[in-house]
Amino acid sequence: MLELRSITAGYTRNAPVVRDVSLTVAAGESVGLLGPSGCGKSTLARVAALLHRPDSGTLLLDGEPVRHWRHRAPRALRTVFGVVFQQARLSADPRLPLTDLIAEPLRATGRGREVADRVAELAPAVGLTPDLLTRRPHEVSDGQLQRACLARALVPRPRLLVCDEMTAMLDASTAAALVAAVESYRASTGAALLAVGHDRTLLERWCDRTVHWDALA
Fold first, then answer.
1. Cα separation, 7 vs 53, whole angstroms
2. How far apart are CA 189 and CA 187, in angstroms?
3. Which residues, including other chains, have CB under 8 Å from residue 22's CB and lie 6 or more apart?
4. Which region holds residue 212: left if phi is over 0, alpha if psi is between -120 and 50, else beta?
5. Which DSSP string corresponds to the chain?
6. Could you tell me which of 85, 56, 57, 53 has the C-alpha nearest to residue 149?
7. What is the pTM of this model?
8. Chain centroid to CA 56: how far?
9. Do residues 8 and 18 touch, judged by C-beta distance below 8 A?
10. CA 34, CA 41: separation in Å to the nearest integer?
11. What is the pLDDT of residues 175-215, one digit of tens each?
């Protein structure tokens, strides 16, 4: 279970984007976080995924408080989370072919021996054909790159997925394929999901429950 208690967070001293917000995602649950652009939901998602340290408040994982964020967090804790961002091109190293992009979390955590098997398993699951895996980000479409970014999020077998506007910049068919890939992974692993977005219809169809930002703030 993931618990965010009274989180306040921002990027400028004394100017928080998120103020005193609490949210819970139970084990295996899918929660949609609905809100307009700029309200702070992406910042809260980054706190939830240990990518941004809050100014105050407590994050608990399975009842234990988290004390370190980003690279200071223990390896075992970092691999609990898989994150997919809205803008794939800003979150992908342009120098890496898609195979290496997908494999980044494994190599970063000393699991390089798993790369070949995991990439071979995940590429078809997210809709990537073998010919695409040797291409670099500038050689593929936005949708193909986002498929690789989803595979990267899944490759360490996370227990909790954070999808921050994952489908916002994609066509309907690609968006549906990525949601289906997430749900296939969750069905096979029991992983939980925090899906952040502004599309009420998508979140209500996708998630067990949807929370509006105004109900948190």
1. 10
2. 6
3. 3, 4, 5, 6, 7, 216
4. beta
5. -EEEEEEEEEEETTEEEEEEEEEEE-TT-EEEEE--TTSSHHHHHHHHTTSS--SEEEEEETTEEP---GGGS-HHHHTTEEEE-S-HHHHS-TTS-HHHHHHHHHHHTT-GGGHHHHHHHHHHHHT--GGGTTS-GGGS-HHHHHHHHHHHHHTT--SEEEEESTTTTS-HHHHHHHHHHHHHHHHHH--EEEEEES-HHHHHHHSSEEEEHHHH-
6. 85
7. 0.92
8. 22
9. yes
10. 8
11. 999 999 999 999 999 999 999 999 999 999 999 999 999 88
Residue 26: phi, psi to the nearest 5?
-75, 160
For 11-60, write each residue's pLDDT tens digit.
987 889 999 999 999 999 999 999 988 889 999 999 999 999 999 999 99
